[in-house]
Amino acid sequence: MSDTLHGTTLPDDNHDRPWWGLPCTVTPCFGARLVQEGNRLHYLADRAGIRGRFSDADTYHLDQAFPLLMKQLELMLTSGELNPRHQHTITLYAKGLTCEADTLGSCSFVYMAVYATRFSNQLPKASVHQLTHYF
């Protein structure tokens, strides 16, 4: 995945572009604003971006995991764990990546941020789901 601007050589030179995803302080990070239609999510490439530079392995894992993350987020909309009217961050782990997502109470969007997993001794306060059974 590349988000190189015209006239630059590094994708981490893109701080002047709008950030569509869930606010994230980790780099590299892939962020997107997904359009919600009922319990379905639609990815729009012009509402997504990358900050920093993913390793080749992380890029490959993101390409593999993204459709499964989307499906899991749709299932969470169906179950009510992700609610379009209430802000609640959920966290998914897959292929060495962490995905945080939240509707932010927007009623029509799901904001996401995906970055390489950095394990710590503290468990996040948000809902945590492991997607390892898909791989």
UniProtKB/TrEMBL annotation:
InterPro entries: Antitoxin_CbeA (IPR009320), CbeA_sf (IPR038025). This is Type IV toxin-antitoxin system YeeU family antitoxin. GO terms for biological process: positive regulation of cytoskeleton organization. Coiled coil: none annotated. The lineage of its organism: Bacteria, Pseudomonadati, Pseudomonadota, Gammaproteobacteria, Enterobacterales.
